[in-house]
Structure formats: C-alpha cells, structure tokens
Amino acid sequence: MIWCILGIVAGVFFGVIPGAGPFLAVATFYSFLLYCDPVDILTFYISLIITTNYTNSITGILYGIPGDATAITTARFGHKMFLEGRGHYAVSSNAISSTIGSLFAVCVFLIFLPSITSFFKFYNSTIQVIIIFFAISFLVLLSGQSKIKTICFFIFGGVLAKIGFNNITYETWGTFGFDYLTLGIPFSAVMIGLYIIPEILKFKDKELNNYKITKFGYDLKTIPSTLVGSFIGFWSGLIPGVTNILGSYFSAHLVKSDINKIAAAESANNSGALSSLLPLIILGIPIVGSEVLIYYLVLSQGFTFDIENIYVFSSILYYIPGVLAACLLLSWVCFNQLGAIAQLYKKYKHVSTIGILVFICAMSIYIYPIKEWIIISLLTLSILGYFFRRHDTFPILYGYFLTDLFWNNLIRVVAIYS
Questions:
Q1: Alpha carbons 89 and 368: distance in angstroms, whole number
Q2: Every domain of the chain and the residues it spans
C-alpha cells in the first residue's frame, strides 16, 4: 500500500502539469527506484499511470491543454464543453469512465488470465521484428509533426544508442578516438537533455486562466460509449505497437457527441494502460517513454521478462480498486484543487523548473560511475534540447531503445531463415 500511495501522490502532481506525466514522474524518482524490488517498482508504476490518466485531463478540461498525448481528446472536447457551461459533465465523464475502464481491465485479467497468457505463447523473433516495425510506423503516423522530422529524430536516437563499445562484437562505433565515447551516451542524459527539457520549456509558454467547475452532474447516456471504449482499449493495449493511445483515438471516433467521445476515449485509455503492461512484463517490449525507464529499472534488479510474470502482475491487481477509489475522489470532488496545482506551478515556473531539473540531474550524476562523462553528456544534450524545444522529441527516445531491439531480432531472423 505504501507504493500505491507514493504512486498516487506522484500521479497527482505530474499528471496535472502538462508535459510531465508518467515519464517525468519516473525520471524524478529514477535514482530512488533503482534500489527497489521489481514488484515494488511495478506497484508504484501501475498506481502512477492510473492516477495520471485521471489527472492529466484536469488542465485539458479547464484550459484546453492536454497533460499528455492520452488526454488530447478530453482536452479538445472537454474544454469546449466547459466554455459552453457543461464542464461538470466533462469532469464526471472523465472520472467515472476512467474508473469503469480500469475495472473492466482488472476483471478481464482475473477471469481470463490463462487465455491471455496463451496469447503470447506464439511469440518469437520474427513476430517481434514485425511488431516493432509496426510500432515504429504507428509512431510516425500518429506524430503531430512532419513525418520526415519524426523519422530523422528516430534515426538520431538510434545513432546515439549505437555509439560506444559493443559487448557482442567487441568493437567500437562512432567514438572517433575519444575514450569517453566508448562508454556510450548515457540514457539518463538523453532522457533529460532531449526530452524532459524540451517538454518543460513547452509548458513554460502556456497561458493559464483561473477557471473553476462550480457544480456536479453525470450523464448516464455515456455508459454504452464507456463500455465500447473499455473493450477496444483493452485489446489495443495488448498488442505491442498499438498502445492505449491509438485505442483511445479509435474509440473516440466511433461515437458522435462530445461527451461520448470523452467517455469512450478515457475508458479506452485506462483499460489499455493496464493491458499494455503485459507486453512489457512478459515480452520485455516497452512502448511509451515511461515504460522504457521501468524496463531499465527492473532489468537492473535482475528481473527476467517471461510468461510466468503474469502471476506477479495479477497479485498487484488486487490493490487497484483502492487506487481507483482515491483517484475517483481526487479527479471529481477535488477537481478545482488539482487545477490549482498547475496555477501554482505556472506562478513559480522558474523555481519549479530549475528545482525539478537540478534534482533529476543530481541523481543521475550520483548513480553514474564516470561523473565527468555524465556531466559532459548532460550539458551537451541539454543545449541541443533547448534548440529542439518546439518539436516533439519523443521519437529520439523511441529510436534510442528500439533500434537495438529491432536490429538484434532482425539478425536472428536472417540467421534462422538463411
């Protein structure tokens, strides 16, 4: 329960701040989690993502600014409803549909657990190459910026990942004779300099007004849309490369009215967020940025990714109803109070931004063995990240992780079929 509470607290703060979300939350606690048990890490992370899926819609409804990509539908239609005087329905639909979507996923897991595990038994290197290819394709297609730019960022991330000494071939690449480069580019430096800094700088320029919700209400007509979204989101999350984001978008396009779009998107988002953990826990394939961090964390603790982990995951599921009850209360009854967090962060943006960055950088430097190299990497990539601040730099992280995974499996496939 301690790890659930920590996940909820982190999810409240980092979910409300646009551009933060689970990624920045895990990044902030990365050094602390590095010494924790894998089950505790997963419990913290599951509580975190559930909470952020509630709270990332706060600024979306009040200000039209989505907390992250999963709240775009709610920000678009929820803020419109708010300006029309129907914001209380957007708030309740977000809260209740999110709860139903999460409970749907938990019930399906507990009832059909043996069948779900058989879903992954056919998995091999060939399938993994195909799935990763489609994951990369979806990343490009769903990107809000130029497709060429997204591809270039992805390749750039792959190049950064390849620099250094290869433990398999015992060769170096991209070092140009510099000894430091044989160590490779630290992932934490890439994460901070090329993703966190650009995202924080984007929020710095957002304008927030003192908006509030003044009444309560719920539209029962949204229940069918909520159930449809829960079903679609769950199966979308089970397929690596599809994720809950695509399931959320697809569910919202199946219904017509604004409030039904919010209900379908939020239920799909929460249902898919839980089911998308299975490809990570069983197959070792992180899709979103925060899962990449969790992947490295549990891997460093000797965690092995295989089919037996489904039973570890199921033991955590029994804590989820308590997390959902807390989130339902926070995101509905305490909606205005959570909205004030974004205002407070905006008011003291320079102090808050510097404080978060200093803490993350200090922890990264502390745990990295070669201090001068991590400092050089952080400074260099942070300067580069400043110039990338107007772009979506997530493909760089995607490229950093997936390039090696894709390439290694492709080599196996070629060897098998040759």
A1: 48
A2: 2-417
